[in-house]
Every structure is written in structure tokens, then in C-alpha cells.
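Before relying on records like the one below, remember that each one covers exactly one chain. Contacts with other chains, cofactors or solvent are not represented anywhere in the record.
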Amino acid sequence: MKRCLLDCTLRDGGYLNNWNFGHENIIKIFNALVEARTSFIEVGFLDDKYPVSMDHTINPNTQAYNEMFKGVDKKGCRVVGMIDYGHCDIKNIEKRDREKTFIDFIRVIFKKDKMEGALEFVSKLQELGYHVFAQMVSITSYNQRDLKKFVALANKYHPFAVSIVDTYGLLDKDELRYYYDFLDRKLDDDIRMGFHAHNNFQLAYSNALRFMKHIDRRNVLVDGTIMGMGKSAGNAPVELLMYSLNSLYNTDYDIGPVLQVMDDVIIPFQKTLKWGYQLDFFVCGKNRVHPSYVAFFRKNGYNIRKIDKICSTIDEKKALLYDEEYAKSLLDK
């Protein structure tokens, strides 16, 4: 069975700089990942609210990425774009042409209440010739009934891969094993499984290794970013995952180009941008709430002990779906 890495620095890392990496840096990051022999490279979001920009890794259509990477050699790496379901009309996705279309794969992210529409959208993208991932955002919000419903849809529409997304870094090893085993038993055998982790509890890297260890009969993909650059608490560092895969499973990732682009591009970003394990993201993980609640109470001048106490009282139905009006109701009268 095969273990693959998917780097999403240019997409997930973009939450920190409004996806403004600059065209030169975009190409440097991409080329370094190609030279490292990264299996899948995610180059950004497809979102039709945004204008075309060669400096940003969020663009309204696939044609923008054709232009952005014009003349760049993929060298066999598989190129991925992401759509947050409902944020990009199908008319903005051109029919895939191996010779002309830079993006080969599309990942569709969705929350559980939108899974039916999202899986139908997956089918439409497949009809255009793309290999498509179905990304289960906030996996910890899924109960067994939700999982059964999702599996039935996935086996009907048959995406290239199904990914567990630990959006708020909440999974412990037993929960991860539960979700993996359930999906592994129920999904059709040729659907790959992926894992995307965040680092609220410093578990993104260790959970990624556990996920790859579970592999039995199914091909799996694990996400990482260079130096863990990513939304809120950040992601599993792809350079560590490359090292571990090389050590444990005899893969042949060349870490050198990644280290160089880390030094040349990512560390300069780190001087002005914050990511990785931080107090606020620990508190949101501890209380299993959306990080925007913590940010809202910070903005209103509350100290961290008070925020922790308030977050512990948030209604479970509201916890992972941020509601500002609800947050306002929790402020001291």
C-alpha cells in the first residue's frame, strides 16, 4: 500500500498573508516541492469572489493558475486546487486538458450540513475530467449517523479520495483511530483516504504519523505545510513528514530543496506572521470551540482566564459554527 504526502503551503499558509505570497515566491515554493518529489502540491483556492492575481494563491478560475504557472514543469507531481463548496461556480472550472490545464486535482471542502450538495458538486467536477477529493471539514462534529450518510454518498459518487479534516486540532489517537477504522471498513476499497491536521494540541505531526501507520489495504495521503505554515495553530510540518516517511517507509523525498525555500521564503514570512501552537488556539481546542470565539472575546478586552471560562459554557450546537450574535449574548451585561 502507498503512503503519499500532499503539501498545502500555498493554500493553507495563505490564511496568514491573505494569500499574497508574491509571484516569485509562489514559483520558488512550487519548484522546491517539485524538486523534493512531493506527490501532490496544492497551489491555492478557487474562489470566484476574488479577482485574478498572479501574486495571490486565491483566484476565481482554473485559467488563472494556467497563467500563473506558465512554463513551469510539474515533473510528474500532481497539482491540486481547493474549492470551499459554494464559493466557486462550476462555470469557472474549465474542462481538464492534460496538455493545457495546470490543475489536475480539486479538493472540495464542506461542513456536514452541506455534504449532499458538495458530493453532487464533486460529481460535476469529475465530469469535467478532474480527480476530486471530498474533504470532511470538522470531522469531530460527525456522529455515527452522519458518517453513515457520508459513506453512502461517497460510494455513490466515488471521489478519488476522502479526507478527514481535523479543523480545530481536536483529535486524540483513539478518536483518530475510530474515524479511520469506520471509513476504512465502509468506503469502497479503491477510494483513497487522506488526513489534514491542525496543531492546537501539538498533535498534528504525531497524528499524521499514526494515520500513516494504520494503513492496511488502502492508499493514504497526509497533508503538511512547509514549517507548519497554516491557519490558526498551523499544520504538520511537511519537512518532518518527509524525514519520517524516508526513515520509516523507505520513501525518497529530497528534503534539501524544502529546507532551502524555508530559509529563503518561509522564515522571512515568519518574522511578521504568527502561526503554530499558541495560547488562544489551545483554549479553543480545550473547549472545542471555533477560534473566532476566542478572538471575539479578546477584541472585547477579556483576559484568557475569563475567555476560557466563557468558552466552557458555549452551547455544543454553536461551538464549531461561529455565531457572532450568539457570542455577543455571552458578553457581560
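Residues 256-270 form the longest helix (15 residues).
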